[in-house]
Structure formats: C-alpha cells, structure tokens
Write a structure and sequence with these properties.
Blueprint lengths: L11 E3 L2 E3 L3 E3 L15 H12 L4 E7 L19 H14 L4 E6 L16 E2 L13 E2 L2 H20 L4 E6 L4 H6 L14 H19 L5 E8 L8 H14 L3 E6 L2 H4 L13 H7 L10 H10 L4 E5 L5 H9 L5 E4 L1 H5 L3 H6 L14 H4 L12
Helix pairs in contact: 1-2, 3-5, 5-6, 6-9
The protein binds flavin mononucleotide.
Flavin mononucleotide binds next to strand 4, helix 11 and helix 13.
Length: 381
Amino acid sequence: MQTSLPHLFSEMALKTLTLKNLLVRSATYEAKAGDDGRPANLYLGFYRRLAEGGVGLIVTCLAYPDRYGKLPRAPGVEDAGCLQALSAVPASIHKVGNGCKVALQIGHTGRQVPHIVPDGKPVAPSPVFEPYSGITPRELSLPEIETFIDKCADAIDFARRAGFDAVQLHAAHGWLLSSFLSPHTNRRTDIYGGSTQNRTRIMTEIISRAQKRVGDDFPVLVKMNACDYAEGGIELPEALAIGKILDDAGFAALEVSSGTWETITRDPQVIGWKAEPIAEARKRINTVKDEAYHREFARAFKKEIKGARVILVGGLKTPALMEEIIAGGDADLVSLSRALIREPDLPNRWRAGRGTRAACVSCNLCLETVVEKDGLRCAVI
Ligand SMILES: Cc1cc2nc3c(=O)[nH]c(=O)nc-3n(C[C@H](O)[C@H](O)[C@H](O)COP(=O)(O)O)c2cc1C
C-alpha cells in the first residue's frame, strides 16, 4: 500500500527485532488485569484492539516484579507462576496484529505509592518526603536492592519466556528506578548513590544480570526523564550522561519523557497525569505547535546517543508532524498514549491516508477511569 508517510511507515530494527512501522503505543496503565495480576479477557480484548489498529510496537502498562510496588489491577511478573497467564498477552497480539510487536513494561511504584503497602511504608533509595502522597518512604537496604535487581532480571527472563518481543524498564516519572537516577530522591552514599555512574548502577546491574539469562539480543528498552523539573533533580545534561551509560550497557532504545508526581503540579502537561476540564485541555494541545513537547530533549538525545534508538513521546497527534520529526532525525520512533486510548485504529487510518489529526484533546479524564470496574477508557466518547 502506498502511504504519504513513508518514514513513519518504514521498518526498523531493535537489535534482532524488526518493527513494521515507527509508531509505538506508549505504556499506559489501564487497570484491566485481575487483582492477582493475571491478565484475562478484559485485558486481552483491550490489547487486541490496539494490535488490530496497526501500531508497530505496543508497550504494556507497568507490570510489577515485586507486589509491594504494584499498581492496582496491573499485571504481575513476579515469579514463574505468572508465565501461563502472561503468555496469553503476546499470543493474542501476535495472532491479530499483522506483525505488531509487544514489550512488557516492568517497574515498581517506589515512593509514589498510590495505595497502602502492607507495612505502611513504601520504599525508595532514600527517605525523601513525597509531597503528592504525603509519605516519607523507607530507605532500601543494600541486600534489598540486590534482591530487587534479581527480581527485575528474573522478570525480564519471564517476559521473554512468556513470548514478549521486548521489555521496557520504567525509569521515568519518579517511580522507584527513576528515583534512583535522580539526585533529588537518591541521597545514598554507597555504590548506588552519589555520582551519576553510581545512581545509574541499578539499571546497568539489571540489564547485565538479565542478559546472562536472556542473551544480548533480547531488546531491553528504557523510559527515562530528560528533566525532573525538581530542585536538585535531573536536568538535560545529566540525563544525556545517563543515556550514554545506558546505551553502553546495551539498552536497545531510550524513550524520553519528563516530570514526576511532585512536579506535575508545576507542569501537568509533561506526563499527562492531571485531569482537568476538557475546555481547559483544548487550550493546551490544540495546535500542531503544542504537540511533541519533548522534541528538543529527543533531538539532544539523538545527537549524543550512538547505539540505542531514541523514542519521542508526549502530545503527539498529527501524523505529518511525526513524519517530519523522523525524517528530520529528531527521533527514531514516536510514541503515543492518550491518542490511542480514544482511537486505537489511528495507525491503520494514517497508513491508508485517511484522517489527519487524532481526536484526543489531552483532557486527562481517562486517568480517572482507571478506578472504574473495567478500567481505562476515553472519558469523552
Ligand atoms: C491513563 C494514563 C496512564 C499512563 N500509564 C503509564 C504507565 O503505566 N507507564 C508509563 O511509562 N507511562 C504511563 N503514562 C504516560 C504515557 O505513556 C505518556 O508518556 C504520556 O501520556 C504522554 O504521551 P501522550 O501525550 O501520547 O499521552 C500514562 C498516561 C496516561 C494518560
């Protein structure tokens, strides 16, 4: 089929994995798994619709390698017992997706705990007060960090054995791995704190231990912040240094995002978590100029990062803009979350030359729907 978006609809390799196009579904928490972390019909149906819609790579919502860092009704990847339930996800995506690939996002909530953890104390690299949840977390001990690294490496192995094509470590938005990277939340004085290299060590340890189990070719992606917007937090120059360490360590792609729970109140657009009236939202990402709000960050990453692919996420709605971003070399791939909640078939429509801008108005009311019985939906349609 001829397309007017030749860059967007070209193939790309992530290590040995070939993606059919450069459109990624960015990880989106949908609260559709069971309370036990098993993804069943509701979950599978949601992912089938995304796969049928034509996107090249789906990144799932945050799956937990440790139940004390889980989001309610998120999928679990805690032990080998989850394998059978989990394997239904890639199986059903591969069945209907016409070449669509799927990466399991793995992460831990850390200090931004949205629910009560059993001992009442969420964990973090350091006991730094978290104003959004009003909690001061407990500092992880060295043996606990070692155990967590092993759990993440195991989870990557479980994901591969369950049939996922790749995994993504969630090290953005202030969750546990993100809080290790950031000097604002990581005040440790041992080998996991201090220098940029030390704060990134948890990530390089996870990938190196995982690669012993899954080999070097299995693509491990990362989502990370180019800027925390927090005083004493990560800013672009340090994010680039972290990106280089991750690139050297063998990560296949870096998805460039920004912000944390503490800082969305300052700039709610950055990660799209704060719900607001639709009329207000329409004022924000309303024109092509308002889209791609991480483009400058992605461009800086593209200049510095030589091996890993760079994925741009944030406010993308217009296919011609995405085509221009890729063609101009500002990113290797583009990633969409909210637009695909409302219209999962956008990639097919764009490929066929039908329709232009995504209808999503970035009102973020979808965030509130995750507490409903069936989880995430577009609150506008
Ligand atoms: C409802 C909702 C849930 C999200 N859940 C996750 C998640 O589980 N993991 C993640 O990395 N980002 C998550 N995000 C952030 C998105 O992946 C994305 O970075 C952000 O929404 C900006 O992209 P967009 O403008 O295309 O929506 C979520 C966003 C929304 C709106």
